[in-house]
Design brief:
CATH class of chain A: Alpha Beta
Number of helices of chain A: 3
Order of helices and strands of chain B: HHEEEEHEEEE
GO molecular function, one term (chain A): thiolester hydrolase activity
Protein name (chain A): Thioesterase domain-containing protein
CATH class of chain B: Alpha Beta
Number of helices of chain B: 3
Number of strands of chain B: 8
CATH topology of chain A: Thiol Ester Dehydrase, Chain A
Radius of gyration of chain A: 17 Å
Helix content of chain A: 25-40%
Largest sheet of chain A: 6 strands, antiparallel
InterPro entries (chain B): HotDog_dom_sf, PAAI_dom, Thioestr_dom
Strand order of the largest sheet of chain A: 1-2-6-7-8-5
CATH architecture of chain B: Roll
Domain Thioesterase (chain A): 63-153
Structural class of chain A: alpha+beta
Strand order of the largest sheet of chain B: 1-2-6-7-8-5
Low-confidence stretches of chain A: none
Number of strands of chain A: 8
Distance between the termini of chain A: 32 Å
Largest sheet of chain B: 6 strands, antiparallel
Order of helices and strands of chain A: HHEEEEHEEEE
CATH architecture of chain A: Roll
Shape of chain B: globular
Pfam family, one (chain A): 4HBT
Shape of chain A: globular
Oligomer: heterodimer
Radius of gyration of chain B: 15 Å
Chain lengths: 169, 149
């Protein structure tokens, strides 16, 4: 009985972090919004760092609904892409350190996105997590929750449908 | 916009509206047209807003921000406009990727204003005006108290 040798922790982390960095870093709009991702195993949390240019109502002040929408759509797309190529990264089929925009797996395309604004976004960091409710070969359905100070007190939620890229067989 | 005396005022209000919104300004939005309950806003192509680096297509989120702004402006420009408004719900359908390099034009129409909510429809195009890029349906809150939604 021989078992696969256990990979050293730092190798595993390095590979996953490099893959996430390559994925997120390839999209200019994510940088424009100031969105980063925290990773715990395969779980991702999007963080939209507060910046004055995200404000939609300077009187309140409150985050722009469009910035909130864009943030949640970004989190949904990254979550789907992450799920899409996670196994390939783990199997070593994708060399994360060598990924470029040209060799990056294709991104899912948004078909529709519906945002429910629950309360105004405060002028501070926002967080969001996406849950994939259906991950088909062609279509995916994703729900996103966004919050600020309290995880239970969402300031927005969204549901979107996405067209998945074709798998290279 | 010249002619009737109330129109320049409406345009001024609308211009003020967009200039006061930092996020819309950051995205380079410009009000092109204001009629009661109907607004047209453009957003130029910008490499910083690219969502798919392989194709150079702008991120859907930027289009969402344009449509959200345009819908809000349509509510504000309505004859029965509230003092402030906020998005309650916005649904966007993406028909096709916007062509890289082209400005996006959004037209929003506040077609119904009840005592409790404003209902808005919007469409966005690039240079090919026969084929919309996206469409949106939104519901907005109404408030007549300043600084409160």
């Amino acid at each position: 009985m021989s078992r696969k040798p256990v990979e050293p922790l730092h190798i595993v982390k390095q590979r996953r972090d490099a893959a996430l960095k390559a994925l997120v870093g390839s999209i200019p709009y994510i940088e424009f919004l100031g969105v980063e991702f925290d990773r715990h195993g395969d779980e991702l949390t999007g963080i939209m760092r507060y910046s004055d240019h995200l404000i939609g109502n300077p009187v309140l002040p409150a985050l722009h609904g469009g910035a909130t929408a864009a943030f949640m759509e970004t989190v949904a797309v990254i979550e789907l892409s992450w799920r899409f190529f996670w196994e390939d990264i783990e199997a070593g089929k994708i060399d994360a350190s060598a990924l470029t925009p040209e060799t990056m797996p294709r991104l899912p395309k948004t078909i529709d996105f519906s945002i429910d604004y629950l309360r105004s976004g405060l002028p501070r960091d926002a967080y969001a997590r996406a849950r994939i409710n259906r991950f088909g070969r062609r279509y995916a359905s994703v729900h996103v929750e966004a919050w600020q100070d309290h995880r239970e007190k969402l300031f927005a939620q969204a549901t979107g449908h996405f067209l998945m890229p074709a798998r290279d067989e | 916009m010249a002619g009737e005396s109330d129109k320049p005022t409406l345009a001024q209000i609308a211009a003020q509206f967009i200039n006061a919104i930092p996020h819309s300004r950051a995205l380079g939005m410009e009000i092109k047209d204001v009629e009661p309950g109907l607004v047209r806003i453009t957003m130029p192509y910008d490499a910083r807003l690219v969502g798919d680096p392989r194709t150079g297509v702008m991120h859907g989120g930027a289009v969402s921000a344009l449509m959200d702004t345009c819908c809000g402006a349509a509510v504000i420009s309505h004859p029965k406009a509230p003092v402030t408004t906020a998005t309650l719900d916005l649904r966007i359908d993406y028909f096709r990727p916007a062509t890289p390099g082209q400005t996006i034009l959004c037209e929003a129409h506040c077609h119904l204003m009840t005592r409790s909510a404003a209902f808005v429809r919007a469409t966005a195009w690039d240079d090919d005006t026969d084929r919309p890029v996206a469409a949106a349906n939104g519901v907005f809150t109404l408030s007549n108290v300043k600084g409160k939604n």
